[in-house]
Amino acid sequence: MGTKNKELEMYTFDQIKDEFIGEIGTEKRTQYEQELQLEVIGEMIRKVRLERNLTQEELGKLVGVKRAQISKLENNTTNVTMETILKVFGALKAKVNFNVELMNSEIQIAQ
Questions:
Q1: Domain locations along the chain
Q2: Cβ neighbours of residue 35 under 8 Å, at least 6 residues apart?
Q3: How does pLDDT run across 47-83, given as a tens digit for each residue?
Q4: First-to-last CA distance in the chain?
């Protein structure tokens, strides 16, 4: 019984996302990317909280929210504001950096 050597076709992760989620710029892809970013932020909050030996309740008290809100942030089950994220990382004594990439280099500012 002879076997035929078939060459595997390789795909990048971006090609797979384009095919199954949608291309960059589509509503579905944008929503996917935003949810993924919030999931990463939630994991970062949990990791730093645990490194600081804080419970969700203790972190909540530092921030001024209930334990359930911290749980929701860590598990990406709620809409979150930048203000809340900054408060949480501030309470964790963690430095936050934002990287903004401008897609259009022509920016006009009203004077």
A1: 13-91
A2: 76
A3: 998 999 999 999 999 999 999 989 988 988 767 777 8
A4: 79
